[in-house]
Batch of 4 targets.
Target 1
Amino acid sequence: MAATSRKVAVVGVALSDCGRIDGRTPYSLLAQAARRALADSGLDRSAVDGFGSAGLGLLAPAEAAEYLGIRPRWVDSTSVGGASWEVMAAHAADAIAAGHARAVLLAYGSTARADIRAGRRTAGLSFGGGGPLQFEAPYGHTLIAKYAMAARRHMHEYGTTLEQLASVAVQARAHAAANPEAMYRAPITVDEVLSGPMVADPFTKLHCCVRSDGGCAVLLAGEEFLPDTAKPPAWILGTGEYVSHTAMSSWEDFTVSPAAVSGRLAFERAGLAPAEMDIAEVYDAFTHMTLVTLEDLGFCAKGEGGAFVAEGRIGPGGELPVNTDGGGLSACHPGMRGLFLLVEAVRQLRGEAGGHQVRLPGGGPPRLAVACGTGGWFCSSGTVVLGRD
């Protein structure tokens, strides 16, 4: 195989209609986002020779590719929960750099909210009772219970407070307030978060992500396509991935997420440090996830996340704006949110985020961003560092 050294960029991003979407299928939302991402890139569908998807059908991504009418020669269906998309983006960037593909489309669609309302499915309390989970499921060890236990351990070890966790939700909502695509935009207070109905101690309702419908798509391409693209590139500078455990009994330290490894790898490969990032888009199914992921990515020391997120530091105008669209806590969370993190990061780097656009002191958009997806209950992580010219 001939060695290549192609640079790889994200050249197209888009969301489908998101939020409360009745009467649509996951495939139609995936296709809507894919069409919009191609239009955003300015490239023709014929340029796409790679495709990645997960979460749909029995033969992902074959079923989704057939629905889109494409016949990719490079495919990926890595399924590690919400981190799948950052991991697939890493794989796609490697494939393009090596010459195995020219342009790779990643696409996702979900009607998680609409399906429950229509009675087509019930809320999933866990991922099942087979394999290693058979030793935990009989004791009512639900998905949210695992995160709640991890949050309580962090509070015990480091003195993290409920108010600090609640401030994460408040700041996410502050970002969402300026985003017309966000599902919930009305401001909330720490007291409102703390006084809400309990879901899994210590998480009240507003500590938890919203349930929504929606789809999104991201198109990555080699540098030779840049003269033909419609928008400035968001370059893939470094990536990392890591899987740590499945059973809680195999999780050595409940206060450390796999982002501690995936983040370190991504920053090392990018030749950059966390302190150089202008924004961070991280998976936030629960408030505690944001806090711990920021620690493990290296934005603060282990145990200092509570103090780091306090006093508006991650909100609009803060020193590190986090989840600038409102995140899964306020904007949207249709099951597997990892791809949405990449869409928002690219929009911010381009200066296309509208009312919730982050501006550097000189007035320009961010130059560097990190997107970090999480899967399972901190079981897997994928991190992507992006930058603009």
Target 2
Amino acid sequence: MKKQTLLLLAIILLGLNLRPVLAAVGPLLDRIQLDTHLGHVGASLLTSLPIVIMGLGALAATFLRGRLGERRGIWLGTLLIAVACLARGLLPQATPLLISALLAGAGIAFVQALLPGLIKARFSHDAGRLIGFYSCAIMGGAAFGAALTPWLAQWLGWSWALATWAVPAIVACLVWNRAAPADEPAAAQAAAPLNPWRSPRAWLLMAFFGVGTAGYTLVLAWLPPYYTSLGWSAEASGLLLAALTLCEVAAGLLASSLLARCPDRRVLLGVVLVCLLLGLIALVLAPLALVVPICVLIGIGIGALFPLSLVVAQDHLDDPRQTGDLLAFVQGGGYLIAATSPLLAGLLRQYANDLRLSWLMMAAATLVLMLMATRFKPGSGRFHTRGG
């Protein structure tokens, strides 16, 4: 197998391993809470904590690249994901579960902080589309985690069902170890300094990514429990999340393939945000009667919005290292924003016992995203000067 093809395979495998550790929890959450005595807020931390760590790790991307390098940092991150999954089988109690969430978040953070810059550097001629496909692999991993884990839990118990996701993470480690290119010398990485912290445009991109990803994390954490509260089984709610995630993958692939034909990203953003808004409204008004349209609409909205948010940010720069730094800032702050949505939903469920309020809040946030998207006119806001 050619080195470049093996590297592409490794990137897809890495993407597939970045979400099962999160998506596998939702369909089993009621069972986990019953056995571990976690409350609704504590249960929400199983999703929120990794996302917080993902955000902090992304903000530290430059430091991680300097201290570990891309090759070793990505390998270490994938190994941490495997360790976190295995720990859930060995220690299925509340505190170890929360610690495993922190470990998983750190592992995901390492990979997400370092891999986009490597993609931009190694595939500069087609980086936008490849980042789109990598994003789709991430969502595909979530689909596998949501669909397969409840069925595995019937045979292995919920703790070892969660632990089985260590296996694909170990496979990704082995493939990455063979495929990863050597880190470039520091001199080859030198570029004009970029300081996104002082750029209003960078903050806009970060807020857009964060609010959009908040919809993804909210659905990931609370859609299965929402439907189990309506009478569905854990297996059925897991399949629903998996089906929705497959819609996300299809939408992400379609959006990525249309990028060359849509230099004005606002066209695609408008379509996907309308789909997301309609799906959230239906989720509040008729969650059982309209379950199929909800699955399709929210899947299209979330699935296309995630890669488009990254591509819109990437459009602002040409230099790979500066692009990596900007994407690290956007994802870092964005994931910190996104981490609040499962936690807020857990608080609302604990005190109001009603998840519909969370869907309504996300619908309002989607309207804000529509206004923000109007700012992304082609060629506007590019980083031409030192410091962004």
Target 3
Amino acid sequence: MDYSPLRTALADVVAIPVTPYDAEGAVDRAAYRALLRRLLDGGVKAVTPNGNTGEFYALTLEERRLVTELTVEEATGRAAVLVGVGHDAATAVEAARHARAAGADMVMVHQPVHPYVAQDGWIDYHRTIAEAVPELGVVPYLRNPLIEGAAIARLGEACPNVIGVKYAVHDATRFAAVARDAGLDRFVWVAGLAELYAPSYWAVGATGFTSGLVNVAPNVSLNMLGALRAGDYPGAMKVWEQIRRFEDLRAERQSANNVTVVKEALAAMGLCRRDVRAPSKPLPEPRRAEVAAIVEGWSV
């Protein structure tokens, strides 16, 4: 298969949409569609329903399927859809097949949450999923610094549809080594730690980055992408400074408020409710005001 259109889509801002809830706590379909259209109208070319910013682990099986279907309906013809899948291998395969049936283009495989991960077992897990959906592009989400580039290379040799890697280890030097050991040109390397890490990762081989902030301000994320593509690192760092406090709030206490801050910003803009599901928690009132002030300063 020709995966080049999918590779192009990954080399961009890969948006991770939030999953809004209604007053009863169910997925708010209308709000979700509206948020997706806002992303698409803003110029986003790749979206990942059921990502961590979408509260993947807090959604039921039925809700994950619903979010997948809603995303495909809104994004078809406008952006590539990269559906998050995970849990045990059988559940991940079932979700990947559902994504294929719904009309998605790719699946992103969440890092296994099992406490015991062997490198060969990591390969087997991803190979099982990739071989079940050879028509789809497959993107492992890698947060484990112990997975070596050689293991990724072996997975790519076995599965041609593994076309990219979302790399989310807080170490640009480690990323540079892993990407080169795996094959810098064999995979599309997506900086999985969003805008604050995008410039450093870009300098050593990434060509795309994921974003939760893009839910709030698509133009800000795309401005950073444009600067990085142009080799304008001072311009990219101007965006970095603009968003630094917002992203620092999300990263506090091992990213405890990763989703909460984004939803708070959207609530301040009147786009969805601030509700999140446990183990996340809404912000206290002083932080709510700070988030609202940051967003107001962006003129979005």
Target 4
Amino acid sequence: MTTAHPAYAQLRQVTPIAAVMLENNPGMMTLDGTNTWILRAPGREECVVIDPGDADEEHLLRVAAVGPVALTLITHRHGDHTGGVERFAALTGSPVRSVDPRFRTHTDAGLPDGELIEEVGLAIRVLRTPGHTKDSTSFVIEGEGSVLTGDTILGRGTTVLDASDGDLGDYLASLRALIDLGTGRAVLPGHGPDLPDLQTVAKQYLSHREERLDQVRAALEVLGAHAGPRAVVEHVYSDVDQSLWPVAEQSVRVQLEYLRR
């Protein structure tokens, strides 16, 4: 019997190379929880782990137990992906590579765009996809073609751009870069279920962002060029549950910065 999403505390095989362990930390921003991905080449014992997750001891121990872990990679800095990094490195002895140097352990190596990481029979291409955060990074599993998208593309819904260092211009460029990878690539996201075709989803994301930008432009024509994020949210997101308005306000703030450059 195939394990379906969501399945907490169970290793769920998604592709011949990629399996996922779902952390039990559901919430408004994490959907069902954080997906910790485990990549293993056929016939190999060692694995590569993507995003150990939050500081959840039980989750970290379960992921460490699927090892030995040869390498840990980080998609971006948010705590639901990185809160357990230090503990996980101690449990596994694994070097941790990330764009943000704060999370690097047992190595000084970052994640240069385009680098091919060859480890334990795997070939993983680094694709920098900033926008959700400045350090957001995706990973392409060469040969298989699947793409680990972190929070750049989610398994359902759309992602929120971090108002502190997210950038809509970068995000739109990142979506176009993912579209350019072509068809038939599975999406292995940081939250939510896996999806069958990256290009289709990335095009939907791009269309959604462009539609929202048009709505914000129209709102500014009504409210005035200097309207604040909250006023724009109340105008554009009037059909959305008000409990989600604080999250929408983050996205609108980033959109306004983009439009006012």
